[in-house]
Amino acid sequence: MILVLGGTSDARLLVGELQAAGYDALLSVVGDYAARLAAGDGLAVRSGALDAAGLERLVGEAEVVVDATHPFAQEISASVVAAATARGRALLRFERCAGALPEGVLGAADAAAAAALAVARAGEGAIFLTVGSKTLAPYVSAARAADLRLVARVLPTVESLRACAAAGLEPRDIVALQGPTSAGLDAALLRHLGATVLVTKQSGVVGGLDEKLQAAELAGATAIVVLRPTAAGAAPGAGADGVEPTRATTSAQVLDWLAASGIVPTRAAAATPAAAGPGLTGTRNASVRRLSRGLLQLYVGDGKGKTTAAVGLALRARGAGLRVVFVQFVKGGRESSELAALRAAGVEVVRPAVARSGVLRGAPSGDDRAAAAAAWAAAARALGGDDCDLLVLDELHAALRHDLVSLPDVLAGLAARSPHLEVVATGRGAARELLDAADLITEMQAVRHVYPAVAARRGVEF
User: Sign of torsion, CA 344 345 350 356?
Assistant: First the structure.
């Protein structure tokens, strides 16, 4: 049996992929909510806190151990190392990629340093805290000393609300919300609260770090990120002797480690790579081959269906186990219904939208420009990397038409991308240079259209 410890979403997805590959895997979590989520995904799970003796007994029942606890959970990681060492079990540390911080984002070694930075940068605005409920004290203390309002976004659980009350936060200064959230929602919260500083943790893509940083940029707030213990100089997961376990950041690396350790599946792998649920965000299923050649597809024209076609292709790619990034430009207001389905399928959705876009009225706002810049930054990362199989640039043509994105930058990014990366760009009025570079162009024609006589319908048009 492979024992995986951790209640995060990427821990659940990892266990799903292990089970799909034919391994007998057990997920150990602390909270009942995490256990319900895992059971709902069809995973083998146990729940409840463990003391040192209980953890050692559980580790002793396993063939190998994977520590997939939260990147900031240093105490439990050290305990896992001690238990694995005592019982002679091979141990792997599975940890989501941290990623480099963008220029202009401030890093802090710990909560005390982040609290001091937040107070120094807040001016007369509020501080919006998204670091969880376990380290509230230094932030609340620093904000009160400076006579600043501090609002904490925490999980909507009894334990989190109790921690907020113990720290002295009033109900008006608590936002109880299950993340990760979109950049648009977080930006709206920052504006509503009058927050000039956002404090978060270096939680990686899975933890919604990119969306939080985009939200701060959209709202004109300073972003402060509490660095992971490794980035700040400590070694999470190290035991008393300071020795760290082997580390992995993708499910493919975990499977490779198991194979190298001589751990073989106990049953045949699932018929399809995605049988146990979506792959880890940022990774592709280990058994899926890269595209032999990535094409540039353009969906253009005045007819309905350009984004719809791109969404269909994105879901098809995820069904085949490919890694997909879906970036939306210029679209403002509420999200369309397809984005929830894309996220559920394991697609990385980037939508730094504004509350009310001026693009359709022909007068892009400063917020529109900031949102487009954030969207292009995410697209450029995907184009410049080598771990994406399909990149959808929804409404890129509109962003180019309104000079919200640089055409030379787009052409250069497309030319330099991995030969295995498929790119789809949608929207009316594609630039001539893009049309010339495309391998496939599909034009949607408005042969018969019901608008504006029939209003857009949720679930069909949005």
Answer: negative
